[in-house]
Amino acid sequence: MSVSLILEGGGTRGAYTAGVLDVLSENNIFCQTIYGVSAGACNALSYISKQNGRNKKIFTEYACDKRYMSFGSLLKTGSIFGFKFMFGELADELLPFDYGEFFKSSMNIFAGATDCETGKAVFYDKRDMEDDFKPLIASSSLPMVTNIVDFRGKYLLDGGIVAPIPIDYAIKDGFTKNIVVLTREKLYFKTKSDVPQFALKMKYRKYPELVRAMLNRADVYNREKMLCYSEQENGNAFVIEPSQPVTIGRYCTKPDLLEEVYNMGVEDCKNKLADLRRFIALN
Predict the structure, then answer these.
(1) How far apart are alpha carbons 126 and 188 in whole angstroms?
(2) With a threshold of 0.90, does the pTM exceed it?
(3) What is the DSSP string of 12-80?
């Protein structure tokens, strides 16, 4: 199937994407190429390894675990997320990740991160994940609440800063047909960041291009989102988005709310399956 899959980030709002991906997997709908950032890229791991339900358990059983995410971790390590726990004990013991299936799969993922020095997006594919999944950690490293990731000479942060819905990168790579999974409803558009400019400039004074990119983040998000719907109107994209406003934030730790968002993803995808199959069949 020569259709790419685009996965938006959004922190714990990614529970919605987890629901969508489980339905796709259950219905044997697998895209060979995936573009994802932050939580979207992380969700793609279990989709590629064909471990249905694993992402749901991560959100509903471990997002509330202080080892997974906590302000205590932020104070202690500089990162609100416990990446060592996520890509260590959680992946190796508690909810074992099938590394063998992931790496032998014909599916590939391009995980987006932001180069702090240039303020541009960089993408890493599955071969780069062999280095302790550092590109995934970089892609998920949100500004102000996580540490900058040093990976192969580049200093990286959250891919959602400059490529929040990376459909334009898929198009540049030659994909004219794309399935897009959003974590915000259709009518949602970003406004300017509520982080004061002086705080950004103070924390990232060594990276002026990063600061510029962060100040321009809302415009980039809105442009990419409008591109998704423009492509859909032209028959070149199929968008799956929340049918109701997602009211949880990116740091939600309430299992019942996260399960509600996951279930919305399941139902929304099921409701669009017939149309999605027709879209795929035409391409």
Answers:
(1) 31
(2) yes
(3) GGGHHHHHHHHHHHHTT---SEEEEETHHHHHHHHHHTT-TTHHHHIIIIITTSTTTB-HHHHHHHS-S
